[in-house]
Every structure is written in structure tokens, then in C-alpha cells.
Amino acid sequence: MRRPLVCGNWKLNGSIGKTGQLIDALVSGMTGIDGVDIAVCPVFVHLPLACERAAGTALHIGVQDVSDQAQGAFTGEVGAGMAAEFGARIAILGHSERRARHGETDAGVAAKFIAARGAGLTPILCVGETLAERDAGDTLAVVTRQLDTVLEMTGVAGFGDGVIAYEPVWAIGTGRTATPEQAQEVHAALRGRLAAHDAALGEGARIVYGGSMKGANAGELMAMPDIDGGLIGGASLDADEFLAIARAAVAA
Ligand code: PEP
I want to staple 40 with a disulfide (CB 3.0 to 4.6 A). Which of 8, 32, 66, 111 is the partner? Predict the structure, then answer.
């Protein structure tokens, strides 16, 4: 039985005041929600604040990216070990917004995955197809390529406790969600790919869905056998909505 993960991607949102309030609201609202890992990923500059406010609670804090380098002459980058030192436990990697805006490649994302694991962070590897790729029938080829590049560079042992987030690009921030059947088809293919490398990895790895997930649709998505939680953008900025998704994960 895989323990579900519900992770908020706060993107470029928040302020000292808002970030603190949202963390406090989540910590108090989480009381009584058991059987799910709950995490949020604020912007880097709010990481110390978020970790301090969440210290000693069940709320995990993560980051939205890390450098593939530990330290050195890499202007503007943040090392995974630096984030871990503050208390971060998770790193979202290869989000489609970074792939599109920053030209992140499959191999570059894989290098970040290795850096995150090396610093003790749990990587959430984002994979997903554009609408044009889906329409061309290339969905499974795209997500398989994105996953395989990481697996080839890490090996099974190096993949470790890594999480995969299937995030169809056409569903992110659009209000258009993949149907449970569409998502399940891709999740099952990704799990099959992991299992082809190692049966235990296929069975144990968490594969979460992301793309306009909210309280109203989380239950039907997470009821699918290979969907183990969610990576949530917009709805994670509202504590009630985000916690409704966490409750749906427990019920699924
Ligand atoms: C995301 O950016 O990872 C995401 C899933 O966004 P949203 O929930 O807003 O579609």
C-alpha cells in the first residue's frame, strides 16, 4: 500500500505575511488528517520562514527547483544541500514551466534529480505532454522518454524514493483536468516502465497527478489504482481547498 502524497506548488506567489499565514492555516487545519504526506513548496526566499513555521509539525516543506551543482560559480542558483539545511525535504524538478521558460532538458533534470537525492531530498520528477503531443498520439512516448533519461542516469538504486508527477501541460493552470481514465492510462504506463527496471520500484514508487486538481475532482482522480496523490498549483494557495484534496487522498 503506497502512502499518498499531496504537494502544493506555490510557484511565484506569497509574501512574508501571506506565506506565514498560509503555513499556519495548513498546520492547524491538518489536525486529524492522517494517512497522507502533505507538503508545500514556497519560493526559495520564503523557505527559512516556512520551515520555521512548520517545524515540529507534520507539514513538509519543499522547493520548486534545485541546482545540479552543490556550490561554486553558478550565479543565481540554489544547491539542494542549502535547501536541506533549512529543513526542506522535497524538490519539484522538471516542471513544465521550467522546461518551457528555462530550456530545461531531460538530461539536465536528471542531473538535478541526482543532486537532490544526494542532499537527502525527495525529488518529484514532473513529466507530461503538450496538447500537440497528445493530439499526435505521442503522450506515452514523451513521458517515457522523460522518465527513462532519469532512470538511465540514476539506475534503480539512485531513483530511490523519487516520486513521479504526471502533469499534462494542457491541464496546468487551465481549469481543464485530465479525465481519471486518461490519467490512469499514463500512470499505469509509467509504473510499468519502472517495473520493467525493477519490480519493487514499480510497486512502491508514488506517481501523483497534477493539472487543475481541486477538492471537487481530487477524489475521482485518486480513486484510480495508480494515482497516489497530487501535485497542486492554484488550489494549493487556498488552505481549505488544499486540505480538501488531502482529505480526498485519505478517502481514496
Ligand atoms: C502545477 O503547476 O504543478 C499545477 C498542477 O498547477 P495547477 O494545479 O494550477 O494546474
Answer: 8
Q: What is the pLDDT of residues 91-132, one digit of tens each?
A: 999 999 999 999 999 999 999 999 999 999 999 999 999 999
Task: Name the residues annotated as catalytic.
Answer: 95, 167
Structural contact between residues 147 and 100, judged by C-beta atoms closer than 8 angstroms: no
Cα–ligand 1 centroid distance for 9 (angstroms): 7
Q: For residue 158, how far is its CA from the centre of ligand 1 (angstroms)?
A: 27
Residue ranges per structural domain of the chain: 5-54+67-165+178-238
Closest ligand 1 atom to the C-alpha of 210?
5
Give the C-alpha distances (Å, rounded to integers) separating 86 from 13, 23, 150, 196: 20, 16, 26, 36
Task: Identify the CA nearest to 233 among candidates 43, 20, 10, 37.
Answer: 10
- Beta 207-209 vs 163-166: how paired, if at all? parallel
Question: How much distance in Å is there from the Cα of 73 to the middle of ligand 1?
Answer: 32
Q: What is the CATH number of domain 5-54+67-165+178-238?
A: 3.20.20.70
Q: Give me the percent of the chain exceeding a pLDDT of 90.
A: 99
